[in-house]
């Protein structure tokens, strides 16, 4: 099952490596016999599915999650292996969508408005008055 990242970007099955193991959690006695835990490994550093610029952006943004240039996603929240495979591939798609997203536009610095400056100073005056009333005046 390929992973859909964007309308024009798809990661084929050939670039995904799946590992299966026994899962802890829900499943009753079947949890001891079924390999329902899924690990999805995707080699981000070596992929040819992403354009070069997007791959570099994703490598930079996901640097703390990478293990030797690969993303590892584990899924074991469902009882069936198929559902866990779907969850892992959806998670990988979402992670890559966020990683390759264009950066937000730069914020233009503006001056505080007169009203906000006035409100800030009034708040400071009020706070000062409260603290002044708390002082011990018995000299």
Automatic annotation (TrEMBL):
One of its GO terms (molecular function) is translation release factor activity. SUPFAM superfamilies: Release factor. Residues 105-139 have a biased composition (Basic residues). It holds the Pfam family RF-1. It comes from the Bacteria. Gene3D superfamilies: 3.30.160.20. Its EC number is 3.1.1.29. Residues 7-134 form the Prokaryotic-type class I peptide chain release factors domain. Transmembrane segments: none annotated. Signal peptide: none annotated. GO terms for biological process: rescue of stalled ribosome. InterPro entries: Pep_chain_release_fac_I, Pep_chain_release_fac_I_sf. The keyword Phosphoprotein does not apply. Residues 97-139 are annotated as: Disordered. The keyword Hydrolase applies. Keywords: Hydrolase. NCBIfam families: PRK09256.1. Belongs to the prokaryotic/mitochondrial release factor family. This is Aminoacyl-tRNA hydrolase. It comes from Glycomyces buryatensis.
